[in-house]
Amino acid sequence: MADDSFRSETRVWLEAHCPAEMRVPMRSEKDACWGGRNWTFQSDAQRQWLEAMATRGWTVPDWPTDYGGGGLSPAESKVLKQEMAAIGARPPLTSFGISMLGPALLKFGSEAQKKTYLPQIARGEIRWCQGYSEPGAGSDLAGLQTKAEDRTDHFLVNGQKVWTSYADEADWIFSLVRTSTESKHKGISFLLFDMASPGVSTRPILLISGNSPFCETFFDDVKVPKDQLVGELNRGWDVAKYLLGHEREMISGMGLGGGGSLGSTIGPIDDPLLRAEIAAFDVDSLAFSAMSERFLDQLKAGEAHPAMPSMMKYAGTELNKRRHELVMAAGGSDALEWDSERSREGKTARDWLRTKANSIEGGTSEIQLNIVAKHILGLPGA
Amino acid sequence: MSLLTDDQKMLQDTAAQLLAKEGSIAKQLRHLRDTGCSDGFGTGLWKQFGELGLAGMCIPEAQGGMGLGATEAALVLEEIGRNLTPSPFLTTAVAAARALAGSAQAERWFPGMIAGETVAALAIDEGPRHAPELIAMRAERQGNGFVLNGAKQFVLHGASADVILVAARTAGSPSETDGLTLFAVPRGAAGLAVENVTLADASKAARLTFDKVALDGDAVVGEVDGGWAPLSRALDAGRAGAAAELVGVAAGAATMTLDYLKQRKQFGKMIGEFQALQHRAAHLFGEIEIARAAALKAAELLDAGDANAERMVSVAKAKAVAAAALAVQEGVQMHGGIGMTDEHDIGLYMKREAVLAELFGDARFHRARAAQLSGY
Fold first, then answer.
1. Which long-range contacts (CB under 8 A, 24 or more apart) does B52-57 make?
2. Which positions 314-353 of B are in contact with A (Cβ < 8 Å)?
3. How many CA atoms lie within 13 A of A168 on its CB side?
């Protein structure tokens, strides 16, 4: 149990080190600090906040201190999170390195890989992207065809990835590649490589929201040093699945919205039918918040079923889509404006459209239900 | 921390074993129903609850109980729900115990409640839908005491109860929370007519008619005109408890249905191999998990005296009703024809769900209350 002294020390430290500007809620992902080689801080406050937290290892509070983490216990991490929430502190660093690659490296990486990559992630020095989906491998991810040939001193990678989030801004990629055609699942390997390597190119994809958070990524004779293979050759699917659990856990957090009641952010609602719909949504949303807290506690205590992230991802993303449908309904025709200054360039509508990807990215809702049916309920043939 | 302590896990195991063995559908619900038991619950099992300390678990230690909270009550109630065990535990050991705690009436009733010999009931509703703010029943002052006139319904275990906690108006008008007073009315009070009604799930709920029922001044629980406070305590505890019991009902129905999906064969394979059913079963699993988390969170906040406890109680009750309703409806549907027979137990889950859904406010009541407590 975290004692009260840790809480009070944390409170005092946060009070002293979290700049006022970093206590204002983020308006969108664009306000987040993503870090990386080419990162331009949006303000001095953003830079100071990252440096202060990274120095203490608190960008990744529960990672070991040897790898740039804070070495906190699960209970202490939770206290830190609660105290940050209490003052409205923004995350100092948002990164796929923290939420996805890091946990996979901690479990499957070699000591040298951990020492090399984890501290860079913790300090926000390298921005990572994820090379998973391909044009022919969506829900059937293990059907991927991007090929890595063994050329004795390196792998030669050729193929194409798609839906690579922020590939055009990322420094490195963690990618699934086919190293054997003898087995579908046991012919996949997990490689890390620099996006500046010769032969890597990206092309942003324009989405229905009018934004381009995803890219197509092309590999044309990319040379990847052998020591950048994570885990065993042809056993990358194990790494991939483990990492997907963390990705789903992260995506399920979208179900929390702001964490409170949607209706209370809208205020009095004259239309009784809309009020009833929002009230029904709020029940589901507040119940999901309780579930999310319980799930994270179970996860940290090692009591969560390995397929639970799938349940959470399904529930959280379906909830987030519903939230944005209701925000659109409450906004009426105001919410439909696309380019006016009044609407902040159509933020409401663009955010609404963005949520439609939630139940597709990281594995569709239908795939999550398959996983729950098979692995938790023990139903055959799913 | 939202995880259970070792002591809580031990209590959960004890309750699970006891209720699976002694509280099973065959031993209790069906037996009581088919033998026409007028209590609608097993007095022997209630006595056993007393011997094990469960009947008095929420009563303060200073008054002979175990001094446990809403979280521990929730653990027991989930097992009661899973086995559809007819029991006065929710009304007596949870809701009434919370209303009486700290009042002068506690000394009179707690020893019997702790022993599993006394049953307490709550008389709140006056119409078919729960609306405690609208209580109209009058209690007029007479000498040192009061005279009660009016009617109550949906008083669970009302005909078997040794004491009934009755909410009546001593001042103000319906829709005001001030001016209500809670009375402890002993069994057999002169002028009290009791109709013992059997509900759809074979439980017993009384309709009470008060015709000049005279009570001493010391029958008041808490303060005159200040009955909303003990009533709210009882309702919060009762609602959180009903949510937990509903989670148990949902889990029991879902387990039974999942077993059936793995047994029943059609088209030469288990029906659980069909994705049309798998996705619905997986969705249901998630809804029950979320409802359980909400019920435990509500209990945790109640135990902590948190300012958001009331809202979370309503969230939990509304969510548990929704999850349990889904579980029993999917349960009957996925069982097909056999699910429509009285011989099969799945239909019993549907009937218990309906009663618990209504008890202390249905999902609509609690959605509206949560919205109101959220400021809209």
1. B52/B14, B52/B18, B54/B15, B54/B89, B54/B93, B54/B116, B55/B89, B55/B92, B55/B93, B55/B113, B55/B114, B55/B115, B55/B116, B56/B93, B56/B97, B56/B110, B56/B113, B56/B114, B56/B115, B57/B93
2. 314-316, 318-319, 322
3. 10
**Residue A345 is among the residues annotated as catalytic for this protein:** no
Q: What is the pLDDT of residue B148?
A: 98
Q: Percentage of chain B surpassing pLDDT 90?
A: 98
Contact call for B319 and A283, based on CB within 8 A: yes
pLDDT, tens digit (0-9, with 9 covering 90-100), for A101-154: 999 999 999 999 999 999 999 999 999 999 999 999 999 999 999 999 999 999
Residue ranges in chain A modelled with pLDDT below 50: 1-2
| Residue A258 burial (10 A CB sphere; 0-12, 13-18, 19+) | exposed
Helices A236-252 and A308-331, packing angle to 10 deg: 40
DSSP-derived pairing of the beta strands B120-123 and B163-169: parallel
Q: How much is the pTM?
A: 0.94
CA distance B224 to chain A (A): 35
Interface test with B, best of A294, A296, A310 (most B CBs within 10 A): A294
Q: How far apart are CA B180 and CA B202, in angstroms?
A: 32
Q: Are A377 and B258 a contacting pair at CB < 8 A?
A: yes
Q: Given the structure tokens 């529930």, which residue do they identify?
A: A315
Residue A1 has what pLDDT?
A: 47
Please indicate whether, in this complex, the C-beta atoms of B376 and A293 are within 8 angstroms of each other: no
Q: Which of A43, A41, A46 is nearest to A18 (CA)?
A: A46
**Does residue B25 have a pLDDT over 70?**
yes
ipTM, interface predicted TM-score of the complex: 0.96
Comparing CA positions, the residue from A165, A174, A173, A162 lying closest to residue A138 is: A162
How many helical (H) and strand (E) elements, i.e. helices and strands, does chain A have?
Answer: 12, 8
- Yes or no: say if A291 and B289 are a contact pair by the CB < 8 Å rule: yes
Nearest CA of chain B to the CA of A289: how many Å? 8
Record: contact A286-B312, CB cut-off 8 A: yes
Cβ-based contacts of B269 with chain A (< 8 Å): 381
Could you say which of A76, A134, A247, A249 is catalytic?
A247
Residue A293's closest chain B neighbor by CA?
A: B2
Instruction: State whether A293 and B297 contact (CB < 8 Å).
Output: yes
Angstrom distance (rounded) from CA A98 to CA A131? 16
